[in-house]
């Protein structure tokens, strides 16, 4: 990895470690975790090796194609253009002398011809070079350009390398919590005698829950409905969604991307959302579709409640089942509030794709947009939805 690129990779690592510290409520030694991450960075970068190679190749190609205007002049002017100009100048001077013009006047005329030829050559070189340079500059930010490939590499590094590394560190810390000399970064702060120790039976539950979560997330993309095989066009829309995700990942703020796709039934809103979820699966750890039944519920079907939607999302995305149980007597409002807290906590540091199909209630959508998460939320609706202005997300 080039030195400048390592600096960028370390920035991603620092941000991810910061999110892990916030998620743990301060029970993580950030310096220890960051040091381990830096030690492992070369190995973690290997999972994004293909994306990195494409990025470096695009940089090298762009560098090879870039020349200053002076370099172009030096290369071009020393060739045919100057030769033709010099011949023309000499010919003009000779012709004037042949017709009896004195030598001084003839030489002056030749100089004028030569100067005019040189200016013409310069204008031609500039006319070719400047538009070409502008085209290269414009192409740099387009799909396949160096900037797009840089964002794709950093996203792959975070999603497939850094995030799984932090999850593994968390699991090791949970398994070794309370064990003498475990040396884990998690729980290293304030975990004196009697503090931070987890009873063996709870440690077993935590390991089981972590394994279940990994399994559920791995299976989640397979549970997505297939994208419409007849789906055509919409490449521009898919490219825009991918670009919004990459832009959000490059930001210093951790926010989800929310894309509202609205239109009449049959225009392909849901097909586009599903196609995007499948196309971007390498950017996310899991995915889930929730039919909110807000458009035109079938006979006898009511719109899906926020409580049911949260339960569906938490189950599909691998939340610990024991956390989804409630005491007897808990009101519906209390259950929704508790489920919402669990949902936001579960998806911190866990980027997933959520498709909210047939939404009608902006407040319900707000409750289902994970806070402080790098997730993608694709909302389909018949009418444009005015989402709350204070929603902590990049909304498109």
From TrEMBL:
Domain Orc1-like AAA ATPase residues, every copy: 231-358
Pfam families found in the cross-reference section: AAA_16
Annotated TM spans: 81-101, 107-127
Entry keyword Transmembrane helix: yes
Keyword Transmembrane among record annotations: yes
Keyword terms of this UniProt record: Membrane, Transmembrane, Transmembrane helix
Entries under InterPro entries matching the protein: AAA_16, P-loop_NTPase
Protein name, per record: Regulatory protein
Species of origin: Streptomyces katrae
């Amino acid at each position: 990895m080039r030195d400048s690129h390592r600096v960028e990779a370390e920035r991603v690592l620092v941000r991810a470690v910061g999110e892990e510290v916030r998620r743990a409520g301060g029970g993580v030694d950030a310096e220890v975790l960051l040091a381990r991450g830096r030690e492992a960075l070369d190995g973690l970068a290997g999972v994004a090796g293909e994306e990195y190679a494409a990025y470096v190749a695009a940089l090298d190609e762009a560098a090879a194609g870039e020349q200053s205007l002076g370099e172009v002049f030096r290369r071009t002017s020393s060739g045919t253009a100057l030769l033709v100009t010099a011949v023309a100048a000499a010919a003009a001077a000779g012709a004037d002398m042949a017709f009896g013009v004195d030598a001084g006047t003839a030489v002056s005329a030749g100089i004028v011809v030569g100067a005019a030829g040189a200016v013409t050559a310069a204008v031609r070189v500039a006319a070719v070079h400047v538009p070409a340079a502008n085209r290269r500059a414009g192409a740099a930010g387009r799909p396949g350009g160096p900037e797009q490939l840089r964002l794709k590499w950093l996203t792959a590094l975070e999603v497939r390398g850094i995030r799984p590394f932090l999850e593994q560190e968390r699991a090791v810390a949970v398994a070794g919590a309370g064990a003498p000399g475990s040396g884990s970064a998690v729980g290293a702060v304030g975990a004196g005698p009697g503090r931070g120790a987890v009873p063996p039976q709870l440690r077993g539950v935590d390991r089981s829950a972590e394994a279940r979560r990994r399994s559920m997330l791995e299976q989640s993309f397979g549970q997505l409905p297939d994208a419409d095989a007849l789906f055509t066009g919409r490449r521009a829309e898919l490219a825009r969604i991918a670009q919004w995700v990459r832009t959000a990942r490059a930001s210093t703020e951790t926010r989800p991307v929310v894309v509202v796709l609205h239109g009449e039934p049959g225009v392909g809103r849901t097909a586009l959302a599903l196609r995007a979820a499948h196309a971007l699966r390498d950017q996310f750890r899991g995915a889930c579709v929730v039919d909110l039944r807000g458009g035109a519920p079938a006979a006898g079907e009511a719109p899906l409640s926020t409580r049911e939607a949260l339960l569906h999302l938490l189950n599909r995305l691998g939340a610990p089942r024991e956390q989804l149980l409630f005491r007897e007597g808990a009101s519906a409002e209390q259950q929704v509030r508790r489920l919402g807290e669990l949902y936001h906590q579960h998806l911190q540091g866990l980027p997933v794709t959520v498709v909210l199909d047939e939404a009608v209630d902006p407040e319900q959508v707000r409750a289902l947009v994970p806070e402080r998460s790098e997730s993608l939320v694709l909302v389909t609706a018949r009418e444009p939805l005015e989402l709350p202005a204070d929603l902590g997300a990049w909304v498109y």
